[in-house]
Design a protein that fits this description.
By secondary structure, the chain is of the alpha+beta class. The relative contact order is 0.13. It has a five-stranded antiparallel sheet. About 30% of the residues lie in helices and about 30% in strands. It has three helices and five strands; from the N terminus they run E-E-E-E-E-H-H-H.
């Protein structure tokens, strides 16, 4: 059984397409980061990267980095997430959830159809 603090890795999907060695990190239904392999990097550079962020919160340089493999990135992510999570208030979490709703595919159509109409502007640059 999952609790409110469980962090889960899901295979990243963009426009319905899954990406190998690319994971979205989720917490309470919110994407809080990503861990992925970066193909095409020179062999002497760490091939994996990780980033931890929460909607509405500033990202710091220590919130992302490189790693040698998936497990190494998960460990580094866990440290960053522990620091970030400790500083989140209930208000921060509610704000992140609200911000995240607008970025979910199921809400994109809703948002598009319910946005207020743009005012029409006359040739002289004044609203009609």
């Amino acid at each position: 059984m999952l609790d409110n603090e469980t962090v889960i890795l899901h295979v990243t999907k963009i426009d319905g397409k899954s990406y190998r060695n690319d994971y979205t990190v989720m917490w309470r239904g919110l994407p809080i980061g990503r861990i992925r392999k970066n193909p095409g990097l020179p062999a002497h550079i760490d091939q994996w990267s990780w980033g931890c962020n929460v909607y509405g919160q500033p990202s710091l340089s220590r919130d992302s980095g490189q790693g040698t493999d998936l497990e190494n990135c998960k460990a580094k992510f866990k440290i960053a997430w522990g620091r970030i999570r400790a500083g989140l208030t209930d208000w921060d979490i509610a704000t992140a959830q609200k911000c995240g709703e607008g970025n979910r595919p199921e809400n994109a159509v809703h948002r598009r159809h319910h946005s207020p109409p743009k005012p029409r502007v006359s040739a002289k640059g004044r609203p009609d």
